[in-house]
Amino acid sequence: MSPHEVDRPLAATFLDLPVGSPGGSVELFLDLYTGDRPLIPARAFMLGRSGPTTSVPAGLDLLPAVGKCLEGPAFGRYVAALRRALAAAIDPARIGVLHLQHLGFGATPALIRALPLHPRIALVHGTDLIFAEAHRDQLQVLRETARAADAIVVPTGAMADHLLKLAPQIDRRKITHIPWGIPDHLLSAPPTRPTRTSSSHLRLLYAGRLTAEKGAESLIKSLAPMPGVELSIAAPRAQFHALAPLLQRTGVRARYLGWLRRPQLWRVFAEHDALVMPSTTLEAMGLVALEAQACGLPVLYQPVPGLSEALAASGLATDFTHSATLARDLDRLHTTPGLLSALRQAGYANAARYPLSATARSLIDLGRQLT
C-alpha cells in the first residue's frame, strides 16, 4: 500500500479459505485486495495452513484455520473463534466498510460480529448458493447475511434470480449488479498466440476445480467414444488423482498439466484450440472463460445460469451431458472454416467488457454511498 493511502478508511474483508486454495473467487479476491498497490485498499484476510504454505501476497493477513466446518454446534464455535481473531487483528477506526466475501461460510458472520457498526457490502459467489441448497445451516447464514447487508452485489442477473429463490424475503432494492473482472493488463497485453500449423486433432483444455458441480465427469464420459480429440486438464493434483478411475474406465487419455499459476495458465491457453466449461449447476461468471477469451482461446460451454449471461454468443454453447450433441459441436469446431477464428474474435470483444479496474471502481463507489 502506498504512503498516501495509509490514512484512508479501508475495507475489511475475509475469505474463508486457506491461502493457496483454487477457485475463481480466490483469484478475484487476491486481484482486488492484495499486492503492493491494491485496487481496493483493505485489511484482507484468509486462513493460514497448519503446514508449509504457498507464498503470501503483499497485503494479505492470515488467521488460524482451526475447526473449519459448515454446520452444527461446531460451526458456531468456528465462527466465534474467527470473530475473536478478527477483533484482535483489526482497528475498527481504520475501517470504512465491510466487504463480505460470500453470503455464507464462517468468515462472513465472524466479520459482522467483530465489526458490528460498519456498513456492509455482500458479494455473492456461486458456491454460496450451491452450499446453501445443500446445508440447512448455510441457508440460514445466507438469509441472515442478506438481511444484515446494506448492499448485495451480484455479478450476473442469473445470480440474483437464484439468490431470490433461496431468500425471497430479500429487499430487492439492496441488490446491485457489478460484473466481476479480469486483470486489465491481460486485456491490454495478452500472451502471444502462435499460428497453428497442424489441425489433425482438436486440442481441448479443462482448467479449474474438479468438484461435482464443475461437470468433468460428464465431459469425460461424452468424450470417451470420440477420436481426434486431445484433452488437457489443469486442476488440483488430488482432485485429478480422484478422477483417474473414471479416465481408466472410459479409456480417455488426459494430459495432466498440474495446478497452474495464472500466468502459466495464460501461456497454456495458446497451446489449445478451445477451453471447455461443462459446469452442471451455475457459475457466478466463469472468470477462467473470460481470461481464456482475452488470450484468444475460444470457449465451449454448458449454458448454465451465469455462463449463458457472461458468454452468450461469444462462446459456443453445447451439451456436455449428451455425447452426440458434443460430438456434433466438436466436429463443427474442427471442420467449419473460420469458426474458431470467428469465436476467437468474439471472445476478445467479450472479455474487453470486463476490466477488473471497473469492478474495483464500482465497489469503491458503492462503499462511498453507504458511508
State the gist of this model:
A 7-stranded parallel β-sheet has the order 3-2-1-4-5-6-7, sandwiched between helices. A 6-stranded parallel β-sheet has the order 10-9-8-11-12-13.
**Largest sheet, if any?**
7 strands, parallel
| Number of strand segments | 13
Protein structure class: alpha/beta
Average pLDDT score: 93
Unreliable residue runs: 1-6
Give the end-to-end Cα distance, rounded to a whole number of Å: 22 Å
| Radius of gyration (Å) | 21 Å
What is the count of helical runs?
Answer: 15
Estimate what percentage of residues fall within beta strands. 15-25%
Shape: globular
Layout: helices, strands, pairs:
Elements: E1 10-18, H1 24-33, E2 42-47, E3 60-63, H2 73-89, E4 95-101, H3 107-114, E5 120-123, H4 126-134, H5 136-148, E6 151-154, H6 157-166, E7 175-177, H7 184-188, E8 202-207, H8 216-223, E9 229-234, H9 237-250, E10 254-256, H10 262-269, E11 274-277, H11 287-294, E12 299-301, H12 307-311, E13 316-317, H13 323-335, H14 339-351, H15 356-370
Parallel strand pairs: 1-2, 1-4, 2-3, 4-5, 5-6, 6-7, 8-9, 8-11, 9-10, 11-12, 12-13
Commentary on this structure:
- The chain is an alpha/beta fold and 371 residues long.
- It has 15 helices and 13 strands.
- The strands form two sheets. A seven-stranded parallel beta sheet has the order 3-2-1-4-5-6-7, with helices on both faces. It has a six-stranded parallel beta sheet with strand order 10-9-8-11-12-13.
- Helix 2 (73-89) packs across helix 3 (107-114), helix 4 (126-134) packs parallel to helix 6 (157-166) and helix 11 crosses helix 14 (339-351).
- Mean pLDDT is 93; it is low at 1-6.
